Amino acid sequence: MSLGGALLVAGTTSDAGKSVLVAGLCRWLARQGVRVAPFKAQNMSNNSVVTADGGEIGRAQAVQAAAAGLEPSVRFNPVLLKPGSDRSSQVVVLGKALGQVSALSYRQRKLELAAIVASTLDGLRREHDVVVCEGAGSPTEINLRANDIANMGLARAANLPVLVVGDIDRGGVFAHLFGTLALLDAADQALVSGFVINKFRGDPALLAPGLDQITELTGRPVLGVLPWREELWLDAEDSLSYTADGVVGRPAPPAGEQWLRVAVVRLPRISNATDVEALACEPGVSVRFVTEPSRVADADLVLLPGSKSTVDDLEWLRRTGLAEAVARHAAKGLPLAGICGGFQMLGARITDRVESAAGEVDGLGLLDLDIEFRERKTLDRPVGTAFGEAVHGYEIHHGAVVRSAEKPLLELDNGEGEGALTDNVAGTHWHGLFENDAFRAKFLRWAAERSGRHGFAVAGGVSFASQRAAQLDLLGDLVADNLDTDAVMRLIERGAPGGMRTIPPGA
């Protein structure tokens, strides 16, 4: 099959369903033997992965690549912005960090980045039958439209038909769809070819009149209504999806007599929050994000996740009383673990003249090691052993261990150690470590023993990879069963239909 087509999935808001719809479209097309690739010109997220070609991309694009049956590549997300504060972000281009930018200074780089985005997309379209592009945020951020490279700017440059997806679970979906179209200029509106409604619960017959009316008002068809599916929760695109005191996933009943309660500290600049999802896949493991000390006091296992601003988030821990609560937890001999930035916080001292320029800062002192931040970011996909089990993961960090008196948690294949392990405190720079099934089972037993949860039992046989694949298959099923796939394929093959109605401003 040789289609050579592409389309763009835009959203009425962030988290409207763009990422999952793109993943579902990729899965649906791949099942039919179509060579399909995902593409997101510009992503803003601290959830990222390391690719086989040695770069860094947004995690959502890695998941979409898996849906398409592809290895993640830096070409699927040529521009990645990693917020370190409300006013600045690290900019990553084709997988490599190029420094910090403010919102204003980033605008000045848009022409250069637009050329990179265009050439990357062109290359993917030459090599694949279909490229399914994902927009960023909303296409109607009118204050940003002039320099847009991810939404209608991309659609105009590449002549892409656009599907707009809206989240009905938030309410106001028809206003969102109509308003999104109405705020675009005539040339942008000409590319908007249809709507998709996401997360619908209830009787479709009650929704049908609204679908007819939005089509009459806009001249655009609703090409599908995706139902709410509780099972879909893995690999959230944005850390904002993880709310304070929110439960992760849908915990299954325990295999033994007791639950294991995991409190994950919801840092202000949390990164790779998805690391804990593999724990939540285990029956009897209740994983919750927390932002106050009382929630730590009730936990069996406390976990400090990654951070894009380690020193700033460490100061937040102290200011909120969470640092003291974490220290009390560890002092009782209860299990504590840190990942990447969270691991760095557990050490004795952090020297950071790169990320925060704070210089020397005291860590929590729960591990006898020192961290120093370096200009060059570590990007790696290492392998090794931990708790006697073969493991793999990925590393994304500027901080490095420069002194350690602790036993390493991991032994790398080159014989070197990584991370740290005491009787009840564990830490590592590796992301994705809990996705190793045999290691995860032993880690949970280690935590249960130290928390006194002797009635907790690891169920055994839980495959995180299989659960992720099942979710991707479910997304493919949702597209096949609930979208007008013939109409979608026509858009891919022929582009946006001509002669569509333009909604005048103020209509």
What proportion of the residues form beta strands (DSSP E)?
Answer: 25-35%
Outline the low-pLDDT stretches. none
CATH topology of the largest domain: the name is Rossmann fold
Task: Report the major sheet.
Answer: 6 strands, parallel
Assigned CATH architecture of the largest domain = 3-Layer(aba) Sandwich
Number of strands: 28
> Could you tell me the radius of gyration in angstroms?
23 Å
- Whole-number mean pLDDT: 92
Q: Strands of the biggest beta sheet: in what spatial order?
A: 2-9-1-10-11-12
Keywords: Cobalamin biosynthesis, Glutamine amidotransferase
Function: Catalyzes amidations at positions B, D, E, and G on adenosylcobyrinic A,C-diamide. NH(2) groups are provided by glutamine, and one molecule of ATP is hydrogenolyzed for each amidation.
GO molecular function: ABC-type vitamin B12 transporter activity; catalytic activity
Domain CobQ/CobB/MinD/ParA nucleotide binding: 8-233
What brief labels describe this structure?
507 residues; alpha/beta; Rossmann fold; six-stranded mixed sheet; 16 helices; 28 strands; CobQ_GATase1; CobQ_synth; Cobyric acid synthase
